[in-house]
Design goal:
Strand content: 15-25%
Number of domains: 3
CATH architecture of the largest domain: 3-Layer(aba) Sandwich
Shape: globular
Radius of gyration: 25 Å
CATH topology of the largest domain: Rossmann fold
CATH class of the largest domain: Alpha Beta
CATH superfamily of the largest domain: HUPs
Strand order of the largest sheet: 3-2-1-4-6-5
Number of helices: 14
Length: 416
């Protein structure tokens, strides 16, 4: 495979993202991310680039390393921010650190940059493919890391997935820039390190990073074709009803890969999770119904209904000026500072029943929705008093609307 010039990667990636003007670079101080920073400045100019470093606090030298990145950024004329990772650091440390980076950098990026660039290379792609093979991943997992994906409201770009680690570091050598080698990159306790070592051992068989990365590309094309079929099935078999999803039973007879993709997407979209459910759990839900990912799949005779589980949203609150459960917004009369959106729950339905008895409005049963469905839907509250329930025939001049879930669009594709 011919080595691609790393200098062309960032401009090429941004050509496909017309709205991206300012970029953030996630810089750890390692060779890959420092090279990404240098190349971004050379391609876009320092004024269009901001850098961010997450100080994981896992080594005594981490603070000094983060400040060393800051000095390089100052030399380049780039704004630099250090974000300390605080909180629980037990369990699977690499997974926890990854989640912390996504959360911290995602919050930092809001309103500051149009996209965040991370310097994953062809070698990282190959290592990821090996690890997912070990987990028994299917087409989605074996398509590897996506070159562009939305996580929450942030666009993350990986422009160097076709470039080797050595080629990126050659950028720094040519400019006389040194980088920091993280000792954890050689620690065999971590699965990625073992995958890297396995790749070196498999190279004599012709199983190298370039070949595995090409396999991921081909699997990515297969995945796009499957997602197109799933979207077509979505449009034919799914409709939305008052913030819930009604699924025709014909969807159960779809080819299993398309069926599973459809149900997984709906669960992700309704729950707000960026991650697909585990296959075994998904298959149990489709076969037996019940609860998964804070959602409930119920058989209503003529169709299936997927809706939020009341227990999963029972503690969620949001001022009426903000979004509730990642989907719902309210419009209505000016309320007091205590006016908020909350799940109706058993308490809300009890208040509605009491008011219906006094003739104030229709009973919530007239909605045609089951009690467990309504309990997970939002109402307008003032302290402990339900003051409006637009989804239960008591609008009180309020309206509630939800972001659609049926389109496999921004932030909702089954991406990694």
């Amino acid at each position: 495979m011919v080595e691609i010039d790393p200098a062309v990667c960032i401009p090429a990636a941004l050509q496909a993202q017309a709205d991206v003007v300012r970029v953030g670079i996630a810089v750890s101080g390692g060779g890959d991310s420092l090279a990404a920073l240098v190349l971004a400045v050379e391609a876009l100019g320092a004024g269009a680039v901001s850098a961010v470093t997450v100080d994981h606090g896992l080594r005594a030298s981490s603070d000094a390393e983060a400040r060393a990145v800051g000095r390089i950024c100052a030399d380049l004329g780039v704004d630099h921010t250090i974000l300390p990772w605080q909180g629980d650091k037990s369990g699977n440390l690499q997974d926890a650190a990854r989640e912390a980076r996504l959360r911290l950098i995602g919050a930092w990026a809001q309103g500051r940059v149009d996209a965040v660039i991370v310097a994953h290379t062809r070698d990282d792609q190959a290592e990821t493919l090996l690890m997912r093979l070990a987990r028994g991943s299917g087409v989605d997992g074996l398509s590897g890391m996506a070159a562009a994906r939305w996580h929450g409201d942030v666009l993350w770009l990986r422009p160097f997935l076709t470039v080797s680690r050595d080629a990126l570091r050659a950028v720094l050598r040519a400019r006389g820039i040194t980088w920091i080698d993280d000792p954890s990159n050689d620690d065999p306790r971590f699965q990625r390190v073992r995958a890297r070592q396995a790749l070196a051992a498999l190279a004599p068989l012709g199983l190298d990073a370039a070949g595995l990365a090409e396999t991921a590309t081909r699997m990515g094309r297969a995945r796009q074709a499957l997602e197109a079929q799933a979207q077509a099935a979505m449009e034919a078999q799914v409709r939305e009803d008052r913030g819930t999803v009604v699924i025709a039973k014909a969807a159960l007879a779809l080819q299993p890969e398309i069926r599973d993709r459809l149900f997984a997407h709906l669960l992700m979209a309704l729950s707000g999770s960026p991650y697909r459910p585990r296959l075994n759990a998904l298959l149990r839900l489709i076969a037996d119904h019940g609860a998964l990912m804070g959602c409930v799949l119920a058989d209503e005779g003529a169709a299936l209904r997927l809706f939020r589980e009341a227990q999963a949203v029972g503690d969620l609150t949001a001022p009426v000026t903000q979004t509730w459960d990642g989907r719902w917004t309210a419009t209505g009369p000016d309320g007091s500072p205590n006016t908020e959106i909350r799940a109706m729950g058993a308490q809300g339905l009890a208040q509605l029943s009491q008011q219906a008895k006094s003739g104030q409005h229709s009973h919530w049963r007239d909605t045609g929705l089951a009690q467990q469905v309504l309990q997970g839907l939002p109402g307008i509250w003032e302290n402990d008093r339900l003051i409006a329930a637009p989804l239960a025939l008591w609008p009180q001049k309020w309206q509630l609307s939800a972001r659609p879930v049926a389109a496999m669009g921004k932030g909702l594709t089954l991406s990694h």
